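Structure tokens please, single chain.
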Amino acid sequence: MANNFFELGLDKWLIKNVKMLQYSKPTSIQNFAIKEILAGNNVIGISNTGTGKTASFCLPILHQLGIDPCGIHTIILEPTRELAVQVVQQLKVFSTGFNLRIKLIIGGEDITKQLCGLENYPHIVINFTYINFYLL
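Here you go.
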């Protein structure tokens, strides 16, 4: 277990932003997910509300963008509008000092206007996607 975010291998600019947010020590989900994602592995994580799941995937995404910020880098699918908006807000905070381009695409808004925003080649596209899961 890493005692701090530096031990997870994140870039210095991200660690500075994390410290600014007064994150002192990675949570369990952050410890596991950040290391695995930075190693190039796929991760499925389950953790309680408030344990830092958003940072668990946003920080490695931003780390990779710091290395190669060209083109559309990531598409994030969220199960609710509220979570999609929350991820946008968190990415903006985590990426302070980085010229991050984000495009949120959600239902109930002018789709033409939203899709035109893709012409600006956002680094990250976030989409609210409703998916039904059925247990048989």
